[in-house]
Amino acid sequence: MGLSDFLFELMVKLLMAILLRGKTVCTLCGKPIVENQEAVGFPPFVSNELDPLQIFSDGAFHASCFWGHPLAMQAEARDVESREKNPPLTRECWVCRRTIDNPDEYLGLGHLTDDARESIHALNYAQFHRACLPGWTDRGKMCALLEEFMNSGKWKGPKLAQILTELCNGSSGYWNARLQQRDLRTRASWI
Ligand SMILES: [Zn+2]
Ligand SMILES: [Zn+2]
Predict the structure, then answer these.
(1) At residue 38, what are phi and psi to the nearest 5 degrees?
(2) Residue 54: which of 18, 83, 19, 79 has the closest Cα?
(3) What's the start-to-end Cα distance of the chain, in Å?
């Protein structure tokens, strides 16, 4: 059993421990999940609030409510994909191609879009050593794509702005200046 499997099982056990208290409410039906009821739970695996799978992110559900939902299979597939793409022990930096073994060094984009026609689709699950970003030649291009997508109306929620700040606000002078200008002009829309 790999570490990611171990962590997932641990998470399920912790979730079950929480469920056993009978305080967790099923997001789909609004009723509590009580002891001995079969349950399904997910980590926060969807960041875009416009994504139809957002309802499952960081949620717990009666198994019957979950499997009765028309998007259940999609949610499970995305959850599996996100764990496969970000295995804690073998995360590979897109810049230096070395393993990112220190969590403090890790910066990941996670899932951005399912739409393969979006240019940002190629950036799904991109991951980096923080230290590798300032010298990366494609950084400006990536930042431009992320910014364009954030402003396209296809994204809602704070994650993309956080990523842009961390990814593009470092020592890249051009982007730093652009983001600061933007920040002054439209601070409200960034938050
Ligand atoms: Zn329910
Ligand atoms: Zn690296």
Answers:
(1) -70, 135
(2) 79
(3) 41
> Tens of pLDDT along 138-160?
999 999 999 999 999 999 999 89
Residues, Cβ < 5 Å to ion ligand 2: 93, 95-96, 129, 132
- Domain ranges in the chain? 3-85, 103-190
How many Å separate Cα 153 from the centre of its chain? 18
Give me the DSSP letters along 112-168: --S-TTSGGGGGTT-EEEGGGSTT-TTHHHHHHHHHHHHTTTS--SSHHHHHHHHHH
CA angle 84, 111, 164 (to 5 degrees): 130
Q: Which two tokens stand for residue 158?
A: 């704070």
- CA proximity to 82, closest of 63, 56, 60, 101: 56
Of 90-99, 112-121, 135-144, 164-173, give the lowest mean pLDDT range.
Answer: 164-173
- The structure tokens 């559900």 sit at 61
Gyration radius of the chain's alpha carbons: 19
The tokens of 32 are what? 């509590």
40 CA → ligand 1 middle, Å: 10
